Structure formats: C-alpha cells, structure tokens
C-alpha cells in the first residue's frame, strides 16, 4: 500500500520530466517534428553579412523556406559565402532571384529574404544566387543620413 | 578450523593506533568458547575499539585476530562476508534501521545471507522475537519502541542467523532496573540455551560481574588483569582494585592535571 | 591562551590546505567505491525507487512553486525593461532563454541543495551516529552500496528532471503575466521564443548544466553525511557545510559552464 503510492509517485514524477522535455522541445524551442532532410543547397555571396548568423531563417514573401547552415569567407573575392538549405518543394527559384539580408524588427535578428526574378532557368542543388544585397550597417545609414542633411543644408 | 577450540576469539599481539596515538599495545586476549566473558575498564580506554577489532570493522596495526579458527585480517572479502554470518553484534544504541519495521529489521540478516522463502523467514523472525519477548511488537516501527525494547529487537536481529559469537557493546547503559534485569536474563539465557560465546563490553561493574564467567580489565592500552570475578575482586593490582571497588581516587587520579593550587589562587592578582 | 605567532598562523593555513586536499581525496575514493565497486546498487531497484521518491518527488512542491514565481517575476521585470526599448514583444524569448540557460539549472540546484541535500546529509549523519552504518557492516552489507549508492543515483536522476520542470512552469508562469496581464500578444510571446530558443543550443545545454550540478550537489550532500562527526553537533555542522559548499560549487561551475557553452566570442 505504501509501496504502491510511492511507485506511482515516482512514475508520475518521471513522466512529468519527460513531458517537460517534450514541451521544451516542441513549444518552447519550436523544434518541428518533420524531418528537414528534404532540402537542397544554395550558395550566395555577400559583401557584408554583418549580424547574420548560422541557423538564421531563409524566407520568401515572408514565408520560411529554409535556413542558413554555414557562413565562410571566400578568400579569393574577399566576400562572404553563405550556404542556404532550402526546402525541396521550393524548387522553382529563377537563377536571377535576389537574396537580401533583412532585419526582423528594429533591433531584431538578421535573416535572408529571397525575391524572385524572371528567368526561365531555375536554381538547382549547389547553385549560386548572384544577385545579393548586403546587410544594412547602422553606421552607413547614419552616415548617409548625415550626408543628406548636410547636402540639403548646403543648398 | 584450527585446534583453538577452547577459545572462540583470540587476539594475539594486537596493536591499534589511531593517527599517532596508540590505543592498544601488543594485547593478548582469549575468549573462552561457550561462556560469557566481560571486558571492563574505565571509559575511554578503548573497549568498544576492541569489539570492532574482533569484528573486523577496524584493522589492527599489527597482530592477529583469530575468530572461529580464522585469522580475520587475512581473509578475502567474500570469506569475511561468510565469517560475519557467525557473529552477532548488539550496539550500544540498538542501531535498528529506522526506515524498516521490526519484522524487516530482524529479517534483514536472513535476507542478506540466505535465500530462504518468505514463510520460513517469517517463522524464524517470530522465533527470535519470542526469545526476546517482543513477538507482539512485530509490526511496529522503531520510533514507536522504547529504548529498552529497541535493544531487545536489536538482540533478536543479532541472533537471527544463529551466530556462534555474540558481542554486546555497553548493553546496560542508561537502562532502568526492569530493563536491566531483562537484558541480564536474556544474555545468560541465550548463552546457555544456544551454546554460544558471549562477549560483554561494559563499565557497569555489578551487572557485568554478575553474569560473566570470566573477566578482562583493560586500561592504558593493555590488559590490566583477567580472571573470574572473584579472583579480580581480590586482586593486588591497585588499578584493578580502584576499578572494582569504585574508589574515586587512586591510580586514576581525582584531580585533572593542573598547576600548583596555591600559586593559582594567589598568583593572579 | 598563548598568542599565536605568525609561524603558527601560517602553519594553520598549511594544515587547512592539507586538510582540504585530504578531504577531496577521501571523498573521491568514497565516490568511486559507492558508484563503481562490485555489487551495483545494493538493495536493488526498490531502494532506488524509494530514494527517487524522497529526493525527487518530495522536492516537487518547492520547485514548482519557485518556478512559477520566478517565471512571473522575470516576465514582469523583463516587460518593464524592454518597454523602454519598445521591444515588449521580446519578453517571451527573454523569459525562456533566462530560464533555460541559467535560472532553471542554477536555482533548481540551489533549492535542491537546501531541501534535499541537507535532508540527505542529516539522514546519513543520523545513521552514522546511531551506528546503523556499523550494524550494516557487521551484518556483512557494504553501507556504501546499500545506503549511499541509491541516494547518489536518485540525486543524479532527479535534479535534471526537476530543472526541466522548473523551466517549463517558469515559462508558463511568465506567459500568464505577460499575455494575460500585461497584454503581450500571445502569438508574439511564443513565436519570438520559438525563433530564438534552439533545442540543441539552449535546452540541451541547460540539461547538461543540471546534470553536472546534480552530480556535484548529491556527491557533497552524501559525503558530508558519511564523513561527519557522529554527534548531533557534528550532524548540524555537516548539514550547514552541505548547503554552503554545494551552493558555492554550483555557482562556480555555472560560470565555467556558461563560459564554455555560450562564451564563444
């Protein structure tokens, strides 16, 4: 009798722990149960990836279609080469699509947004997006703003 | 088994040091088989340490500890485990396992050393509890027992495996006269009925002397005297006399070592 | 009392240092014997279950209540600080990350040390002083296997579980305050959180931390009980030592682990 309640208690305790783990996995960290192995690789070269991190999302029209899996320095061109893993069903990206590094919210994280071009040829696994727009660097923005103000006043 | 059948336990040239302090120096003790032997001495002389040495809870710094024809310090772990089946110990505080009830406490050694079926274990436990007069307490928890009852249950547990040697560590401390009488009777009864060897470590002179067949008086790290109770009562050794007669002053002085009384009183002004 | 000279004081320091090293050695031998010696867990699964109950299940109440309160406070404070940057919607990820990476493992370990750790020390110390440990030895049972090992394993298993439960109830408590009271959008709370909390980075690292803490806290608690002076004064000193040493160890290790896990700058 006392043994039974103890066993049940411990069992419930461990179940609660497993439940907590599941909750943490699914609801808190957003781990999706669908295996993301159905992806293909694309590369994109940027002049400045400031703030972009690995595992940042890749979106099109605001919908997440993949994520960044690697960021390396291309030593020949001194540009950053970003490796993207895009879902296989999004396989009709024209080769002249644009990849831009955007900011989520004012202080938010950087992510990559892809806007389509008009070419007939589509990007395949291992392909490269050539048209890229680098990250907005705050200092450049401020510099531009100040320059504009100065030139306006000069008029 | 060796030829020492007359003696159940023999300590030969045993020395024991704790750190740099020598507790025992080359001690020889022989416990005759089948009798009640008392080991007495003033408090702090290491009587309990002797018991622990006999039970191999402590290892002697040198010397041999022969129990039932085996030299304990030389035994392997599994041999020591088997040897422990034949020894029962009653600790000063009873030392019942507080999270087990009386039945489980007494059954504990049986479960450890044997694979007996449950109904046999139950029978044996009932037998042992009946021997100490506590069969009715079989379902109680240790904290529901009085001090004296705890000790009796601990005794039942000590005899659960029908050991050949029973060791009692200060069994009479703090007992009321009735409990004392019960214990004295039990020790003598068990010894004679079961034919075991009993070793009683105590500083309670009257009770120990009344039930012991043989006595050792221990002090200063060695054996001060041995013999039957009558022999020791008439001993010549002044230390033994002081102990047996309960003299407040003698070889063990009344005054704790201090500087000269006069200078202490007058000097500090 | 004769005044201590400088030499004496230095000698005391030296002795304290040597004592510490010898305690470390003793406790390591103790640990190895209890965990790795022959005989597995003495007393089998039943004893482990019993200890899991007394160490883990009995700590649930304090963990859950503390978790809820800390989660709610985090949300409150976080909201007030973030609103000065206009980023209240980020409160979800703040609460989650703080709990998962830091407060979950650390606070749970500290509470555990205070509640379960001190109870373990007192229990074992009491068993030592009433000679139950000696009795076990005389009956032929190794107290390190029968008494200590189940308690060690129970601690190793319980603390990570408790830490996870703490984080979960904290995040939910935070959501009650943020969403139901302060008006953060339900979707933002959870979506921002999911976007920024990574399972392998944050959740797993938090669990690793709590496993390390479990090891250290339980080890200290059990050893202090086993090693204490078998008097009531010795037991109370040992209990205090458990709480102090375990808490310091947890906080120190937390820094080291955080630097290792999240500090790749």
Automatic annotation (TrEMBL), chain A:
<protein>
    <submittedName>
        <fullName>Outer membrane lipid asymmetry maintenance protein MlaD</fullName>
    </submittedName>
</protein>
<dbReference type="Pfam" id="PF02470">
    <property type="entry name" value="MlaD"/>
</dbReference>
<dbReference type="GO" id="GO:0005548">
    <property type="term" value="F:phospholipid transporter activity"/>
</dbReference>
<feature type="domain" description="Mce/MlaD">
    <location>
        <begin position="39"/>
        <end position="116"/>
    </location>
</feature>
<dbReference type="InterPro" id="IPR030970">
    <property type="entry name" value="ABC_MlaD"/>
</dbReference>
<dbReference type="InterPro" id="IPR052336">
    <property type="entry name" value="MlaD_Phospholipid_Transporter"/>
</dbReference>
<dbReference type="GO" id="GO:0005543">
    <property type="term" value="F:phospholipid binding"/>
</dbReference>
<dbReference type="InterPro" id="IPR003399">
    <property type="entry name" value="Mce/MlaD"/>
</dbReference>
TrEMBL record, chain B:
<comment type="subunit">
    <text>The complex is composed of two ATP-binding proteins (MlaF), two transmembrane proteins (MlaE), two cytoplasmic solute-binding proteins (MlaB) and six periplasmic solute-binding proteins (MlaD).</text>
</comment>
<dbReference type="GO" id="GO:0016887">
    <property type="term" value="F:ATP hydrolysis activity"/>
</dbReference>
<dbReference type="Pfam" id="PF00005">
    <property type="entry name" value="ABC_tran"/>
</dbReference>
<dbReference type="GO" id="GO:0006869">
    <property type="term" value="P:lipid transport"/>
</dbReference>
<keyword id="KW-0813">Transport</keyword>
<dbReference type="GO" id="GO:0005524">
    <property type="term" value="F:ATP binding"/>
</dbReference>
<keyword id="KW-0547">Nucleotide-binding</keyword>
<comment type="similarity">
    <text>Belongs to the ABC transporter superfamily. MlaF family.</text>
</comment>
<comment type="function">
    <text>Part of the ABC transporter complex MlaFEDB, which is involved in a phospholipid transport pathway that maintains lipid asymmetry in the outer membrane by retrograde trafficking of phospholipids from the outer membrane to the inner membrane. Responsible for energy coupling to the transport system.</text>
</comment>
<protein>
    <recommendedName>
        <fullName>Intermembrane phospholipid transport system ATP-binding protein MlaF</fullName>
    </recommendedName>
</protein>
<dbReference type="InterPro" id="IPR003593">
    <property type="entry name" value="AAA+_ATPase"/>
</dbReference>
<dbReference type="InterPro" id="IPR017871">
    <property type="entry name" value="ABC_transporter-like_CS"/>
</dbReference>
<keyword id="KW-0067">ATP-binding</keyword>
<dbReference type="InterPro" id="IPR027417">
    <property type="entry name" value="P-loop_NTPase"/>
</dbReference>
<feature type="domain" description="ABC transporter">
    <location>
        <begin position="9"/>
        <end position="245"/>
    </location>
</feature>
Automatic annotation (TrEMBL), chain C:
<keyword id="KW-0997">Cell inner membrane</keyword>
<comment type="function">
    <text>Part of the ABC transporter complex MlaFEDB, which is involved in a phospholipid transport pathway that maintains lipid asymmetry in the outer membrane by retrograde trafficking of phospholipids from the outer membrane to the inner membrane. Probably responsible for the translocation of the substrate across the membrane.</text>
</comment>
<dbReference type="InterPro" id="IPR053408">
    <property type="entry name" value="MlaE_Permease"/>
</dbReference>
<keyword id="KW-0472">Membrane</keyword>
<dbReference type="InterPro" id="IPR030802">
    <property type="entry name" value="Permease_MalE"/>
</dbReference>
<protein>
    <recommendedName>
        <fullName>Intermembrane phospholipid transport system permease protein MlaE</fullName>
    </recommendedName>
</protein>
<comment type="similarity">
    <text>Belongs to the MlaE permease family.</text>
</comment>
<feature type="transmembrane region" description="Helical">
    <location>
        <begin position="152"/>
        <end position="179"/>
    </location>
</feature>
<feature type="transmembrane region" description="Helical">
    <location>
        <begin position="12"/>
        <end position="35"/>
    </location>
</feature>
<keyword id="KW-1133">Transmembrane helix</keyword>
<feature type="transmembrane region" description="Helical">
    <location>
        <begin position="199"/>
        <end position="222"/>
    </location>
</feature>
<feature type="transmembrane region" description="Helical">
    <location>
        <begin position="55"/>
        <end position="76"/>
    </location>
</feature>
<comment type="subunit">
    <text>The complex is composed of two ATP-binding proteins (MlaF), two transmembrane proteins (MlaE), two cytoplasmic solute-binding proteins (MlaB) and six periplasmic solute-binding proteins (MlaD).</text>
</comment>
<dbReference type="InterPro" id="IPR003453">
    <property type="entry name" value="ABC_MlaE_roteobac"/>
</dbReference>
<dbReference type="GO" id="GO:0043190">
    <property type="term" value="C:ATP-binding cassette (ABC) transporter complex"/>
</dbReference>
């Amino acid at each position: 009798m006392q043994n039974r309640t103890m066993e049940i208690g411990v069992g419930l305790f461990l179940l609660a722990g497993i439940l907590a783990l599941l909750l943490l996995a699914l609801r808190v960290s957003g781990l999706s149960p669908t295996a993301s192995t159905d992806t293909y690789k694309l590369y994109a070269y940027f002049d400045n990836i400031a703030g972009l991190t690995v595992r940042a999302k890749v979106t099109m029209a605001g919908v997440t279609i993949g994520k960044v899996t690697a960021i390396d320095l291309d030593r020949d061109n001194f540009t950053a080469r970003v490796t993207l893993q895009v879902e296989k069903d999004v396989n009709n990206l024209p080769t002249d699509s644009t990849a831009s590094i955007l900011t989520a919210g004012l202080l938010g994280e950087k992510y990559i947004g892809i806007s389509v071009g008009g070419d007939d040829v589509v990007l395949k696994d291992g392909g490269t997006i050539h048209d890229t727009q680098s990250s907005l660097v705050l200092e450049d923005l401020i510099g531009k703003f100040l320059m504009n103000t100065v030139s306006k006043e000069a008029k | 088994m060796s030829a020492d059948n007359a003696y159940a336990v023999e300590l030969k040239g045993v020395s024991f040091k704790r750190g740099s302090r020598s507790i025992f120096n080359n001690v020889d003790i022989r416990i005759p088989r089948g009798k009640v032997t008392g080991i007495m001495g003033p408090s702090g002389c290491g009587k309990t340490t002797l018991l622990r040495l006999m039970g191999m809870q402590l290892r002697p710094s040198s010397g041999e500890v022969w129990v039932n024809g085996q030299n304990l310090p030389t035994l392997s772990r599994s041999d020591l485990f088997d040897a422990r089946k034949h020894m029962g110990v009653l600790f000063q505080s009873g030392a019942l396992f507080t999270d087990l009830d009386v039945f489980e406490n007494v059954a504990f050694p049986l479960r450890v050393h044997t694979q007996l079926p449950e109904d046999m274990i139950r029978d044996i436990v009932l037998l042992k509890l009946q021997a100490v007069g506590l069969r009715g307490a079989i379902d109680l928890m240790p904290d529901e027992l009085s001090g004296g009852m705890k000790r009796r249950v601990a005794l039942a547990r000590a005899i659960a495996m029908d050991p050949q040697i029973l060791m009692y560590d200060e069994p009479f401390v703090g007992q009321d006269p009735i409990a004392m009488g019960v214990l004295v009777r039990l020790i003598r009864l068990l010894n004679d009925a079961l034919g075991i060897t009993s070793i009683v470590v105590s500083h309670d002179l009257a009770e120990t002397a009344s039930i012991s067949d043989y006595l050792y008086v221990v002090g200063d790290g060695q054996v001060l005297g041995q013999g039957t109770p009558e022999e020791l009562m008439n001993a010549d050794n002044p230390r033994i006399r002081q102990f047996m007669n309960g003299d407040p002053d003698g070889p063990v002085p009344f005054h704790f070592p201090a500087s000269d009384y006069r200078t202490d009183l007058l000097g500090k002004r | 009392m004769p005044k201590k000279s400088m030499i004496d004081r230095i000698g005391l320091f030296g002795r304290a240092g040597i004592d510490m090293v010898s305690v470390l050695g003793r406790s390591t031998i103790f640990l190895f014997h209890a965990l790795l010696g022959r005989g597995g867990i003495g007393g089998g699964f039943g004893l482990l279950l019993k200890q899991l109950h007394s160490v883990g299940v009995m700590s649930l109440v304090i963990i859950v209540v503390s978790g809820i309160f800390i989660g709610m406070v985090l949300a409150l404070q976080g909201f007030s600080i973030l609103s000065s940057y206009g980023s209240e919607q980020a409160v979800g990820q703040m609460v989650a990350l703080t709990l998962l990476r830091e407060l979950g493992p650390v606070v749970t370990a500290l509470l555990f040390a205070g509640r379960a750790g001190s109870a373990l020390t007192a229990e074992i110390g009491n068993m030592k002083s009433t000679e139950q440990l000696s009795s076990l030895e005389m009956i032929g049972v190794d107290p390190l296997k029968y008494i200590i090992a189940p308690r060690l394993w129970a601690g190793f298993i319980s603390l990570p579980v408790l830490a996870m439960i703490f984080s979960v109830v904290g995040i939910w408590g935070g959501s009650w305050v943020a969403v139901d009271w302060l008006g953060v959008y339900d979707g933002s709370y959870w979506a921002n959180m999911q976007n920024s909390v990574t399972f392998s980075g944050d959740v797993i690292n938090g669990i690793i931390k709590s496993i390390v803490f479990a090891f250290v806290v339980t080890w200290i608690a059990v050893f202090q009980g086993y090693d204490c002076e078998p008097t009531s004064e010795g037991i109370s000193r040992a209990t205090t030592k458990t709480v102090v040493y375990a808490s310091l160890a947890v906080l120190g290790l937390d820094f080291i682990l955080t630097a290792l896990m999240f500090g790749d700058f």
